[in-house]
Every structure is written in structure tokens, then in C-alpha cells.
Amino acid sequence: MLAGKRILLIIGGGIAAYKSLELIRRLKERGAAVTPVLTRAAQEFVTPLSVSALAGEKAYTDLFDLTDEAEMGHINLSRVADLIVVAPATADLMAKMAGGHADDLASTLLMATDTPVMIAPAMNVRMWEHAATRRNLATLKGDGIRVVGPDKGDMACGEFGPGRMAEPGEIVEAVQAALTDGPLKGKRILVTSGPTHEPIDPVRYIANRSSGAQGTAIAAALASLGAEVVFITGPADTPPPEGVDVIAVQSAAQMLEAVESALPVNAGVFAAAVADWRVKRESGSKIKKQDGELPVLEFAENPDILAQVSAMKAGRPRLVVGFAAETDDVIANATAKRKRKGCDWILANDVSPETGIMGGEENAVHLISESGVEDWPRMGKSEVARKLAERIAQALA
Ligand code: C5P
């Protein structure tokens, strides 16, 4: 619930602005108070009247409105909220934020505030993928701004791809997570999860049986303790949890890239079952069956994401947690793996088929750290996740 919370909602000028009306309704349903602000461009898409009617409050539009300055200066307006949400955050608004501009009410509020900020980007796929937007996004993340979405899908401009604003329900969950008080409030934690798919040709790939269940449960448990979670997932069976920033990838190389751009974080939990090898030369066209000839696949080693992050000289997360799925000599192998990878903790489990752990509901793990081995009893994957999240909270306190 969001009772007693105030959201300052900055509506940017994009076609997705129509979704901000639904967003206001959903936030109010949860008990939040919403102070709306519209940029000049936003007013071309939605009217201050409809925004204000839904919010049940004045909609602010102008920096130089003297009455507003008398009633509530822009500095004050930016600080009374528990959270500032920018939805839709257009490419232009993101650029202004990253550059520190303050030439209208919205950008001035964002500059003047000491309140946490969340953005829901929405723009054409080319604009989203443009190098300038990539740079601005990295800057904003580095400044501690939370990002929800964008989603992939059909866009109003007729193109398909990432750039669609997250749905109002998703944004509300992210707001709820951002305002959840807990021991991990203010901490940004990265979780990798699921398998990776390593392409052979446009229709075939190499995969593994990871369901993503444990990684998903860990991300949910960390978010419920108030952490800002960046959830980088391969193509998993388990749907991602609500209230986390989901980055969907396919291959190990893409996962590494996503991890690098999610940094800095306070902690990283590397639960993904990353493929050890990829096909050295992915075929650009479907490999054809040829009489009597078998295709030969040459492999190349994938980057070890956990080892690379663990070895970082500058900006290494304070706590790096890896997993070891073993079928024999679990503790000995996992202990050696912790040293080899350079991570702080390893959660080791026995994934021999007879344990039913891979793809199952339960897990029996051992927490291996510098100070030794701790055996946890067999329990549900969500309980393992809760216990791990609590331990992480203690370690980061
Ligand atoms: O596959 P392996 O047993 O080496 O995995 C151990 C740990 O290393 C896991 O936490 C996994 O997420 C991580 N890993 C990784 N990148 C790889 C291989 C494994 O991050 N290429």
C-alpha cells in the first residue's frame, strides 16, 4: 500500500503520456497522493484539466507562475514528495536530466530535488538505441536514478522494439518497491538469473535446463527488503518478479554487457546458469542438411561474468555472491570455485538428478565464505531466497 505517500509525477511530452492518466488512477487506488506536473510538450498529449481531475490536485505547468511561487515555490514542490516519477521520460527529458538543465518547471524540479527519482522511459526504438540516449541512461543510473522499463513491443510510431513505456501496473509495483522500507533501502543490487541461449544459426541455439526459479525468488526477496533490484535474466521459464528493473538478454555476451551497464551496485548475486561455451562462428543463415556430411561446431569460451566482476579493481560491488551447482564433492568443489572466481560467497547446491533440485521447488544449499561453510537445511527456493536476502542485508549494513 502507498497510503501516506506523496508522488510528484512529471509527465513528459510523448504519446505514452496517455498512460499517465491510468498511472495516476492506479497510484491513487493504492492510497498515494499524486502531485502532477506537465511539461509544455506533455500538454499537447494530455490536458492539465484531465490530469488534475484524476489526481484531485492542481496540475503544475509553469515555472514562472507567480501564484504558485507564492503558494509553493518550485524548490518546495520538489521536496514534499516521497518519490518523483517521470513518466513518460522522453529522450529529451532524459538528456536534460543527464546534462543538469533547468529551463522549465519539470527540469528545474528535478535539479532542485533531494528526493529519490524514478524514470519510465518511452520513445521510438531508434531514439532508445541512440548512442546519446545510452550515454544519458548510464549517467542517470550512475546518479542513482531508478529506471523502470521500457518494454519491448509494437509502438505507436509503427515500429517494434524496446522503447514502449512500462505499463502503469509495472510502474506502480516499482514505486511500491522504491518506497518499501526495509534493511536494504537505498541499496542497489544486481541479480543474474536463468539460462543463456548461445546461437548456432538464426533458428538453433545451445541452452541449459535452468528455470530461473532461484534467481527470480532472490530478486523478489531483495526487493521486499527495500533494495533497488536490477534483474538481468536469460530466457527463463519463471516470469520475472514485480517491482524490479528487468533486463532480458539471450547470450552470455549480452548478459555481460547488461551487467557492466548496470554497475555500480552495492551487491551482485550471480544466479544465472551462464553457458560456458558459445559457437565460435554463428552462421548468418540456417545451416542446411547435407547428404553424408555432419556440421562441425567449433566452440569459444564465454566470458566468466562472476569472475570478471569479482576481479574489478575499481567499482567492485561490496559483496559478490556466486552459485555452484555441483553433482559430486559439492563442498570441496564449491570451496575451490569461490577462490578461483574471487567472489565473497558461494551458495553451493547438489544438482544431481535424484535431488530434484534443478527445476524443482526446493533447494538444499551451503553458504561458503572466507570464514567457512554453513549448511542450510533443505527448504523452499523462496525461503532460501529470503534467508540469503537477510544475510545480504546484514553484510551491507
Ligand atoms: O558454471 P559455473 O559453475 O562456473 O558457475 C558458477 C558461478 O559463476 C555462478 O554463480 C554463475 O552465475 C557464474 N558464472 C558466470 N559466468 C560464466 C559462468 C558462470 O557469471 N560464464
Topology:
Blueprint: E1 6-11, H1 17-29, E2 33-38, H2 48-55, H3 66-71, H4 74-79, E3 83-89, H5 91-99, H6 105-112, E4 117-121, H7 125-129, H8 131-142, E5 146-147, E6 151-154, E7 160-164, H9 168-179, E8 188-193, E9 198-199, E10 205-206, H10 213-224, E11 228-233, E12 245-248, H11 252-262, E13 267-270, E14 277-279, E15 299-301, H12 305-310, E16 319-326, H13 330-341, E17 345-350, E18 362-363, E19 365-369, E20 372-375, E21 379-380, H14 381-396
Parallel strand pairs: 1-2, 1-3, 3-4, 4-5, 8-11, 8-13, 11-12, 13-16, 16-17
Antiparallel strand pairs: 6-7, 9-10, 14-15, 17-19, 18-21, 19-20
Helix pairs in contact: 1-2, 1-9, 5-8, 10-14
Cytidine-5'-monophosphate (C5P) binds at residues 192, 252, 270, 272, 274, 302, 304-306, 322-324.
What would the keywords be for this entry?
alpha/beta, 14 helices, five-stranded parallel β-sheet, 397 residues, Rossmann fold, 2 domains
Number of strands: 21
Separation of the first and last Cα atoms: 26 Å
Oligomer status: single chain
Provide the number of structural domains. Answer: 2
Distinct ligand kinds: cytidine-5'-monophosphate
Give the overall pLDDT as a whole number: 92
What is the CATH architecture annotation of the largest domain?
Answer: 3-Layer(aba) Sandwich
Q: What's the CATH class label of the largest domain?
A: Alpha Beta
| Proportion of helical residues | 25-40%
